Amino acid sequence: MKNIAANPLTQKLSAFVALSETELAVLERLHQRRKSFCAGRDLVHQGQTKQAAYILASGWVVSYKIQADGSRQIVDFQIPGDFLGLRSVLLHTSDHGVEPIVDIEAAEVMASDLLQAFAETPRLATAILWAVSRDEAMVVEHLVGLGRRDADARMAHFLLELGARLSLVGMGSKAGYACPLTQYHLADALGLSAIHVNRVLRKLRENGLVTFRDGWVTFDDYGRLIELADFDPTYLDQARPLLP
Predict the structure, then answer these.
(1) Cα–Cα distance between 12 and 6 in angstroms, integer?
(2) Domains (ranges, CATH) in the chain?
């Protein structure tokens, strides 16, 4: 059980509930079909049917939708411990694509695996529902960011949210975190041009708030960055376990 206890998904779910030995054993079973995938090759295609879900074990991926004119809108980024394509398993058709940003490892999970796990361990099912609800809450925040925050606040909020998500799985802190995203990724996700992203990042760096350089985000003044973004992490609901 030692390996599964250190697994990113286990760490995330443990923020919601203290997992039992039985629940850890079920999680370990869900991770049995572990596979490697290359960067740049879609793991899930938009419109794909009969798709398995995946649990991301290492690396980063991007979820996106292709518009009628062929342009791409990034919906979100997934980090270790996140589910990939879960909605496509439940709805039978994927409404978005999933592409690894770097080489990744992920565990393939069939619908039958999930249903059996939920039947055996209702508390684990509730914890996974909590994780999925967090993902939905983040999408809502992203919509608010696109519609109501200026470019500086939007970028600050996004970088802070990523930091909070990574901290939950032991990959980030208030000092900073490794980040493989390019300015083009940020532009597609935040509704900005790549040139505008460059200007915003330079402004935040020159103001002593945050530095994003050479694949690393450094929080130079975490408190002031929170003020700029008006960042309230309540929607991430990481405070304490909610189930006995």
Answers:
(1) 10
(2) 2-131 (2.60.120.10), 136-236 (1.10.10.10)
